[in-house]
Structure formats: C-alpha cells, structure tokens
Amino acid sequence: MKFREIFRFEFAYQVRRPYIWLFLIVLVYLNFLMTRDRAVSEALFEEFFINSPFLIANTTVFGGLIWLMMAAAIAGDAAARDAGSRMHPLIYTTSITRAQYLGGRFLAAFVLNALLLLAVQVGILLGIYLPGVDPELIGPFRPAAFLTAYAFLSLPNAFVATALQFGLAIQSGRAMASYFGSFILFFMGFFVASFLLYKLGLGTLVDPIGIRFIVEDIAHLWTTIEKKERLLNLEGIVLTNRLMWLSIGLVSVAVTYLGFRFTHRLGSTSRWTRLSLLFRRPQVVREDATNSPVIGIRASTPIWVPVIPRTFGFGMHIRQTLTLAWTLFQTIATSWAGLALLTVIPLLTIPVVVDQMESNGVPLVPTTTRVINELTAPLSAELSRWVIIPALLIFFAGELIWREREARLGEITDAMPGSEWAPFLGKFLGLGLLLVAFTTLQMFAGLFAQAILGYNTFDVPLYLKILFGLQLPEYLLFAFLVLVIHVLVNQKYVGHLVATITYVFITLSSLFGVDHDLFVYGAGPGWSYTEMRGFGPSLGPWLWFKLYWAAWAGLLAVVARLLWVRGREEALRFRLLMARRRFVGSTPWMAGTAVVLILALGGFIFYNTNVLNQYLTVSEKKERQAEYERRYERFDGIPQPEATRARLHIEIYPERRQAEILGSYSLINRTAVAIDSIHVAIMPGVTTGTDFDRKATLVIADEDHGHRVYVLDRPLQPGDSLRLDFEVTIQSRGFRETGVDPSVTSNGTFFMNTNWFPAIAYQRPRELITATDRREHGLTLRPLIAFLNDEEAYTDRGRGMTLDVVMGTPGEQVAVAPGNLRRTWTELGRRYFHYSTQAIGGEWSFFSANYAVHEAWWEDSDDPGRAVEIRIYHHPQHTAHLDRTLRSIRASLDYYSKNFGPYQRESLSVVERPGNGTGLHADAGMITHGEGFTLWNPKDDGRSHDHPYAIIAHEMAHQWTVPYAAVEGAPVMSESLAWYYGMKVVEHSRGPEALQRLFSYMWQPHPYSPIFRGEPLLRGLDPYLSYRKGPFALNTLSEYIGDERVNGALRNLLEKHRPVDAPLATTLDLFRELRAVTPDSLQYLLHDLFEVNTYWKLETERAVATPTKTGNWQVTLDVETHKVVVDSAGVKQEVPMDEWIEVGVFAPDQPGKEIEPLYLRKHRIHSGRQTIIVTVPRRPARAGIDPDHVLNWEERSEVNIKKVTVD
Amino acid sequence: MTLKITNISKTYSTGAVQALKNVTLTIPHGLYGLLGPNGAGKSTLMRILATLQEPDEGTISLEVSSPDSGHVIDVVNQKDEVRQTLGYLPQEFGLYPKVSAESLLDHFAILKGITTRRSRQVVVEALLRQTNLWDVRKQKLGGYSGGMRQRFGVAVALLGNPKLMIVDEPTAGLDPAERVRFLNLLSELGENSVVLLSTHIVEDVSELCTRMAIINKGEIIHEAEPLKAIEGLKGKIWRKIIEKSLLPQVELEHKIISTKLLGGSTVVHVYSGEEPVGFESVPPDLEDVYFSAMAGHYPQRAGLQPK
C-alpha cells in the first residue's frame, strides 16, 4: 500500500512536470527526423525498407542516446528531490521502509523512462507512415520490428540507466548526479567500448548503448537480405551484452538499497568527503557562543567595521570576473565530473593513444602529427570519442549558471554591486580555465604516450599550436554557447535539453535542412596538418569562420547579459524590462560592434564561399547530377572518337595556388560510322577552353552541367582522327564553404586528370548511384555495379594512350607525372620535367613538392640488359622505408616477371602523396602512398611482420593486374589476385615464416571484419571478400594443386586478356582458368571456395599415442568433421564431405628450433566422426587435422589440434 | 540618508495576489522595524528595496546626504548605485558547504569591490570577530549551525560599510543571546545608516527600533515610533481573566485584540475608549499596539493617500 502510494505520488508528480513532455516531444521529433532522413542508414547499404527491423533498431539506438543525455533528470529527481528540497526529514521519519521508499521511487522513474522511450518508436512510426515517404521504401508493417527494438534495446537501457542515475543521485543527494550516470554509460559506449577494449573483442560486450553491437556489428555482419527481413533477436553477443548490463543495473540497485539509510544528510557531503573524513582528524564544529568567555549580552559591545575604500567600475568588474573564474575553476575541477575530465580522461587517453599507435598489430611511429590526430576532433564529429567533451560542457554550464541559486545564495550575490558581465564572463572563464587545464593534460598524455612508445622527438610547439590554437577554440565557442543557453532558458533541465538539441543540430545540421556552415554555430571548414604540407591553406578559412562565430558569441554574450536573471523576477516581461534598462552605456556599443563584425565577417565569408566560388547544397549537387543525366544520358554510348595520345604542358605555381594546363588529345574514330558531333565533358571549378584543329561549332555549352557539344563541319570518318586542344586554368580564389582545395599548395601539390581535365563523351560516373537518390529525382534505378553476366560490360575497355607531359614547377621542387623521365632542365628559375609513357589507362596523377629522389635500377636476371629504373620520390624526412621498399620492389619484379611475364614498362615511380593516410595506390608504372605509409614501424628483429614490404609487393602485383570488367567480382579480380601475388613474393623472398606472419596479419578481423554469409567469392564486392577471402581461397587452392598450376592459370588469364582487343576478364574467366588446371578430384574444392560460401568444421576430439614394438609410435586420432554451406540469405546447410584434408603429427617444441612435423599427409575425410591411425617414428606431442588452417582459415579455432596423450 | 517609498504596489501574476498595495513610507536613518504577520508582504517589500524585485508601480528613492552635497538614487532604475551602498540579509539563504567562512567572506569582499588584498584581510578579520566567527573561520560552512550561518550572513551584509541595510526576518534562527547581540549591532549601525528590519516578532521592534511600521495584507496599517505608539494606547487596553468557555460571550460584547492562555485560564485584552465592565486596566505594550493595529483600531495614518 505504502509502496503503491509512493509510486503513485512520484509518478503523478513527475508526469505533470513540463520537462517530461518536452523530452517526449523532442524524442518523437528527432526520431521522426532520423527516420525521414535515414541519416543512420545513409552510411549503409541502401536497398532495404525504412521499416526494416534493422533500421528501426538503428534509429532506436540513436534515439536512446539522446534520451540518455537529456532525461537523466527523471531518475535524479525521483532520487534526490527530497534531499534537494530539504523535505527529507519529513519523509525519513515516517514509518516507511527503505524498500518501499526506494522501490517506489525507482519504479516510478523506471516506468516513466520506459514510457518515455516509447516516444522513440512513436517517432519512427510517424516518420514511416506520415505522408511524404516514397511508398516503395515501406515494407509490410511488422509490429515485432518495433517491439523487439523496444524490448531488447530501449527497455534494458532504461533499466540500467535509471538504476545508475538513481543510485548516484541517492548517494549524493543531488539530482544532477544522475547526469553523471548518463555520462558513465556514454563514456563506456563511446570511449571504452569503441577504442579501449575494441581490440580485445570486449567492445561489443561493454557497450551499454548499442552503438557497437547494433550500429556497427550488425550493419556489417548482416547481409542485405537480413537487414531487410531479419528481426533483432536476443542471441549470441547481443544476449550476453543485455544480460551483462541488466546485471550491472541490478547490482547498482542493490548497492543503492544497501547503502541507503534514513539518516540526516550533512549538507551535501559526497562519498569522497565521507571517505576522506575517515582519514582525517574528526573536526568538531565548535559553537563559539557556548565557548566564548562572554556569556550573556553586552549592549555596549562596540560595533566596529573598518572603513575601507572600495573600487567600482571597470576595475571591480575585472577583479570580480577573475575571482569568479578562479573560484569556479577550482570548484568544478574538484567535482566528480571535473575529476573525470581532468584525471580519468587524460589517464585513459594514454592507453588509447598507445593502442592507436599501431594498426592491426603493426606498430606505427608515434609522430606528434599522428598522436595529435588521436587527441583532436571537430566539435561536430558526433561519433568521435571526444563527443564526451561537449557532453561534459553542457553539464558544467548548467552547474555553473545555477551554482549560486542552487546554494540558495542567489539573493545575496544578486544584491552585490556590479553588472551582470562579471558573473557571466567569470563563469565562462572558469569553464575556459578548466578546458585549458584539460588541454594541457591531454598534451602531457600525448607526450607521455610517445615516451612510453620510446619516441623521443617531442614536438611541443606543434602540440601547442594544434591543441591550444585549433582544438581549444572549438570547445571554447561551444562552452560559450551552452552557457548562454542556460542563461536564456533559465530552467536547468530544460537548459540541458535545449543545449543537447543544439548540439544535435550542430552535428547533424544537414538533417535539419541546414547545409551552409554560416548557419551552424561554431562550424566551418576544418584544418589539416601533414608533415609535408604543414597546415597548407587550411588555416585561413578556419580562422575566418571561427572569427565569425566569435563575433556571434559576442552578440550572444550581450543577449545573455541583458536577459540575465538577477533577483526574483524570472518572468519574461521583467527580463525584457531589465534588458531595456541594461541596454545603456557600453552595451549597445558592444552589441553594435558584434553585429557589425557578424555582418562584415559573414559577408566576407559569404563573398568567398558563394560569390568568388560556387556554392551548391547537397541537394543542389544531386539535382545537377540528375539533370546532367536527364539531359545527356541519351548520348551515352553513341559513337565518339577515342583519345590515343595526350600532350600536356603543366605549369605549377604553388605559392599562388595556381596551375595552368595546356594540352591536346589526339582523337581517332575507331567506330564504323562517321562522327559528326563531339561531346566534351568539362570539370567543375576550373576554367576550361576547348578547341579543335578543324572547324567545329559549339552547339551546346552547358557549363553548369559541364557538357559541351561541338558539331564538326566535316564529320570524322572511320579511322580518321582530329585533335582537341584545351587550356585549363586552376586558380584557387578565396575559399569555399568546405575550405580551400589543397590540390595546388606550397609543398605537396597533387591532382589527377579526372579532377580537372576535359574528357570525351558522356560521363557515366557523374550519375546518381543510390536507389533513393535516383528514385527521388525520377530516374530509373540501376545496380551499383553491373551483374557478373552482363557481357556488354566486358567490352567496355580503352586501348591505352600515349602520354607526353612537360611539367614546370619552382626551382626547388620536383614535379612528377606518369611515365619515364625523359629530361629535366631549368628555365627562368623554374624546373621542367618531361615524362612520357605509352599504353597508359585513363587515370594520371601529377605531383610537385620538395621531394628527395632515391634512384635505383633493377636488372632482369633472366634477360640481362633489360633494366627498370626505379625512382622513389619522398619527403626528405621520410626515409624509413626506402631500403625495404626497394627490396620489395626488386623481389616483386623478380618473381612476377618470372611467373607472370615481363614488367611492361621501363621505369617505376614510387611517389609520396601529401596526407596522413596510410593507403597506397597503384597506377601504371607508379605506386603512390600517403605520408602515413612512412609511419609503419615494423620491428627489424626478423620475427615481426614486415608490413611495408608485404604491401609494396601487393601494390607491385597490380602492375600485372588482368584487365578486368567493372562487374560483380571486380574487386576480387583486382585485389584478391594482387594479394595472392603479394603472398607469394613474401614467401619466396622472405621465407615461409614471413608468410605465416603475413597470414597472421591478414587473419585479424580488422580492418575488414569477416562476413560468413552473403555473395560467394565470384560475385564478391565487400572488402573482406576481395582483400581476405579471395587471396586465402587462392592460397588454399595452391596448397592442394601447387603454386605452379595456380600461377600458370593466372598467367594464362593475363595473357588472354591483355591484348587491347580481347574482352575484359571477370571472375568467371578466372574460375575457368583455375578449373582447367585443377584435377577432377579437386574440382569440388574449387566450387566450395569460389561458387559458394563454405566452412569446414574440423575438430580433433582425442589424440592417443602408443609405442609399437618396432620403436615407432602409433597415433590414433578421433576427429569430427563437417562442411557447411551458407547461402546469400544467411541460411546454413550442412553438406556431405568426402575430401582430402591434411593430417599432421608434431614432435615436442624445442626452443630455437622450428616445430617439426613427424607426419603430414592428406587423408580422405568424410562428414561426422572417424578415426585416423598413423605411425610416426618418434614420440609425438600434438596431432590434429588441417594443422595449418588451410581450409578453416576463417575460424582458425584451435580445436583442430590436440595434445597427444600416451596410452 | 533617507529612504522614501512612494505608492509601491506589486501583484504576483500567479494567483493574482496583491502583495503590496500603495505602500508609502519614509525611512530615516536609524533602525526601522517593519512588523507584520507571515505573508503580509514584508519580504516582497524588502526584496524590492534590495533591487531583487520590480514594483508594478511607485517610486523609491534613496536620498544620500553627504557633508558636501547630497544626491538621490532611484532604487528601481539605478540598481547598481543602490547595490554599492546596500547590505542585504535575505530571510532565507544557503552557503557553499565546502568552503571555509574566511575564504567565502573574502570572495564576497571582492565581489563587493574591496579589491586590495590587504584591506580585504582587515575587513574580513574585523567582521569575523564582530560576528564571533573568528575562531571557526577555517571551518567549512557546511558544518555551521543555524545561528552561525545567520551571523555569517550578517558579516556578508556588513561588507563595504553599507548605508542601506535591509535585513529580512534575521532573528528567526538565533538563540536569545545571539538575537539581542544582533539587534544591538543593527541598532548601532543605524546611527549613520538606514537599517530596515522586517520581523514578525514584536519584541524585535519594541526593544531597539526608533521607528516602526505595521504591515498587513500588503498595506501599511500603522506607522509610528514604538514608544509613542505605546503611549497613545494608554487607557485603551483592558484585561480580563476568564474561563475558556466564556470566550464566545466576551467576543460578542467586546473588541478583543488578543487572547492568551495563562495557567489554565484565558487572558483577554480588549481595546476600548472607556472601561468595560469587569475589565481591569493594563499598561499597554507594543504587542497591544500590534494587535490593535491588526484588529483595525487605528485610523489610516494621516498623510497617507487614500486609494
């Protein structure tokens, strides 16, 4: 009864609070928006219903995240309202039990939260079923989709969060402590789960929110069909996760219950103080009146208060501001949340940074650039781990603005002299000091992490520049905003709510239909820093935007000051009255200055982004793409001449960020008909002049869509050719909304022809791709990539071109273009480089920087006299891998030319691209790599995986890539083959142990997590299939039929498809070649590996050895084996097996020696249990089936090998 | 130094309660008592004077006389000028629990414009000694008793030698000795500043206030010097000790201003121009003044504009 009354009262009390309804509205609205814009799904595949269980679960996770951050007030209020309102003596002295009191309150909070989270589902429902959604996107209504998302995600989360929030608020007696509970969960999800424990496989388990185990894991693991149909189920890791967090919730409830007493609360003594009191001398508060020698009253006690001169005006305000700033800094720095910010986060940052200084087990050099990259994130990066900082800032801002009033000191401080500027700026500065302290500690955390990793080049100035100069202002601007919000809203919970929504708006502004950064507080183009480019041109626009926002902050400050509540009058009428009265003296001037600055800076930015440069919103860009297709798609595939030769003269002026390109294409009509008009595609953002060497009339000049059509006076007859002359001027004018294009920059110019050069014919890559976009613009849907059997795509190939380039660049720089370097010379202080090449494809890269050039030669041992010039262009400081790169290149040239035919070119360039990425890219005769590549830091101990070596071998293999068609399976043709080649180079040049280390590297689930379902390899598109499954499948095959046969098949494939008139290869051709070299007895394996998804479950149950009379040992193995095929919908089916699998018996390990197989031979193995008996000459230690994981490399479970027991 | 309150009215939008109706008062320097029951509008008036609330209508001016020249501060519109000479002790306030008295007082001293460290030390020490908190200055305020908090509040109010002291029901949490000491202190302050003390305890006013006003339901119903007011009631207050059961009877016949229980019987005070039968004359005290005023036996004050 009492329990019911406590529950009823609490529920009824809270349900009448306006903020509950505000939370409700916000949740419904935001989830409506998220569903509508499918922000969540945009990053994922496109073709499923917006009411698919997967998308509903996804949106539920994000909705829950917003709920977590804003609705902590509910549990906090239920737990701490009595203590906060000082009503607790009345309640505590009634005859209720702890269980009734806590239980009723907790249950009320939980029920409220659970009901509130229904708003998430309501928002999703409205998003789906209110008019305005393409009906094709809506699948059949399935209540279970909503119910499972609610029951498996929202409800457990509500329980855990309420339990933690409630517990913390009870402990501290303060409702706000509940936000700390939210923070802990948030922190677990974003920081701990995603970064700290991710590698250990614990990430999925310790994420309380679902970011990892729904949004990331399922998004990756479920096939498209599953995403469309499959219901979220409580099984596997999801079940474990839910159970674990429910238990944590229960523990929290228990701890709260056990720790709670109906006792007097000493002020707001926190646990810390209570803890510290244990170690301190008990403090007795002495009542002086009783101790004082004078008892009674002496009317004559003279009152004497010294008369002290006081300062008013500016001096006092400064003093007040500084005092407040310092006091408040101390207060929040020593609070729970402050300690979290200033100790926990920097301390956790150290292991996070250390952890991130390797990539998939390969160490990276922890350069300052790289470490800083881990320490910084733009404010709007809502999925970065640093989203914690804005969350904390919102919390601190509330605490600061409400500090006096919550301590019930407001009336005293409000009656003190001085304007409202002092408290407002004091609070801002206090928060600013906290951020400065945090930033300083983060810097030390970074330095410390570097020291731990043994890196001693501490670049403190760079830390200062970036952390204090670039990252801190970002936080300060946001801190300012949330303070102003709390001032204006003047209701703490609603303030948190508004601040949270504001943050959501900042991070997802495009979801609200706001694209331009001029309208998103604090936003602007980001900065970038690389060792080659430095900050490049990124700082200017960054600064202009930040100044603009600082001016806004100034105006907001004036508004906050004017509407600052001082005293008892909180009604808007009085606040406006006060504002009018306060709008005197310097305030109007400040406001005016701020407005003028906003207009001036905003105008300047607008001039740059929208006048000097063209600004298009995302939807405008899409509309242009659609319009391009609508207008010109009918010209797709019409007879057009083909370029056979390009002559280019490129002048680069890095300091002016300018480039001039004079060029010509020789075009030939290879078709059977005369061509009367020529379609020229023009690239956006550059000035392009085009002309022909014969009379042609420009009939369409559609500059917006980049399409020109020339009608030739005299049609181009079959076999006839003409020349297109063009002139392209690249001149960066001011800056764009996205910043400055760094393609041409003082050091580190890099661009490709596809960025700027005109091209012939209709450009299919310009079309919209995703189904939604196409549907929205009334275009027919098209597959992402042509189907495997689309034979038309096989013939769509260029014949290669001759490229002849002269590049001019300032005297100190080196320019690089594809091809052989013919000549360099100097003219008027500029250096010129002449490159030329033949049979090059359609993508050409151009570079200019202060490169150091490392030159070497490779001579073909089989064909003396044939030599390849190797030129490595690198940043002068980035020399770590020069030797290794060269060795790998030479080994690759040796192996590949021997096995797959001669290298087709005279030279090979390796060029460092500006940018911090580690990625490499292979073009004809050229390998480019990001600066990050030079940061791989393999140990040269002969026992570690030499990643740069392996990856160069892989990139080298691309020089032998079979010309392949852009159909399903294309990435397998390109990447799988190149990785298989790379494996072989590593094996042959560095030995089998090096190959095993490469395997270990590739077996890791990162960066490509395994998919055990989906398309078979022949139609593979996913990186896991192309970068992992494909090479391993080829490797498995080579283990069975031998390298020579596989290599022979691949060489055949290459030779068949290399001729320019041959069709392009597909995985079907690959499969055919492999089938040709595979004996009949193993054809099943080829099918298992390529045509279906097959998994072998191979388990050794028992291994027993008995000595024989002859001194040998007989080993008896009990094995259980199964073969499972999973189809593209994810359905598993066991298939019978009867095939050759290796059985191995091994001698004991001997330190320093390799493990020696006593027996290694293939046996015929069928499904189910069976016994294998082999005889070995010596005493065995371990034995098992498929010991090298040739077949079950994907699971690599160690159940296949057992210790041998001796009978 | 004079505080002139003219025709102040204030209505709260919630519940449309008129908290103050046309209040007009002139408060000279000295200790001025504002006496009234709970909910009479005392705190509203005090907060308006302390710049924390806005009157709906009316003006308040603080006439500052200095040896050379005087000037007038408009309390409603020149809040900051008022705050520079204001000392305010609210009826209810809290303190940061984790700070020591000394450092919080020092903090407030800065906020009040005492910027040099040396003078702050002097002032803080003097005030902590005056309020008998010197020995416990290092202790955290969270451990202070009600009286100690109240005295700390006084110390804060006294910072910066205020010429206008507004103290709202300050004696509530004080023990008898503290209370008297505190009132003494206020009275001494009143020697050269305006000290306005609001209270619902008659003794607070009777002992030390040079002038007083009685407020009820937002209206000033009586303004006087306590001694003169008592004087004015001479011969008008009569007393009778009766059985409790007779009270309704007596109420019908006489204008009762107060009844008190005394040792099982009921002591009735009535207000009457002539001697009622069976009553004895008693010398009036301020309580009688208060209850007479509350019972409506005073005519509206002369000089008070009718509404």
UniProtKB/TrEMBL annotation, chain A:
Transmembrane parts of this sequence: 18-34, 54-76, 106-130, 150-170, 177-198, 243-260, 324-354, 383-402, 428-452, 472-489, 501-523, 543-565, 586-607
InterPro entries registered for this protein in UniProt: Peptidase_M4/M1_CTD_sf
Keyword annotations of the record: Membrane, Transmembrane, Transmembrane helix
Protein name, UniProt field: Uncharacterized protein
Lineage: Bacteria, Pseudomonadati, Bacteroidota, Cytophagia, Cytophagales
TrEMBL record, chain B:
Source organism of the structure: Larkinella punicea
GO function terms (MF aspect): ATP binding; ATP hydrolysis activity
One Pfam family hit: ABC_tran
Taxonomy, superkingdom: Bacteria
Domain ABC transporter, chain residue ranges per copy: 3-242
InterPro entries: AAA+_ATPase (IPR003593), ABC_transporter-like_ATP-bd (IPR003439), ABC_transporter-like_CS (IPR017871), P-loop_NTPase (IPR027417)
Name the record gives this protein: ABC transporter ATP-binding protein
UniProt entry keywords in alphabetical sequence: ATP-binding, Nucleotide-binding, Transport
Membership in a protein family: Belongs to the ABC transporter superfamily.
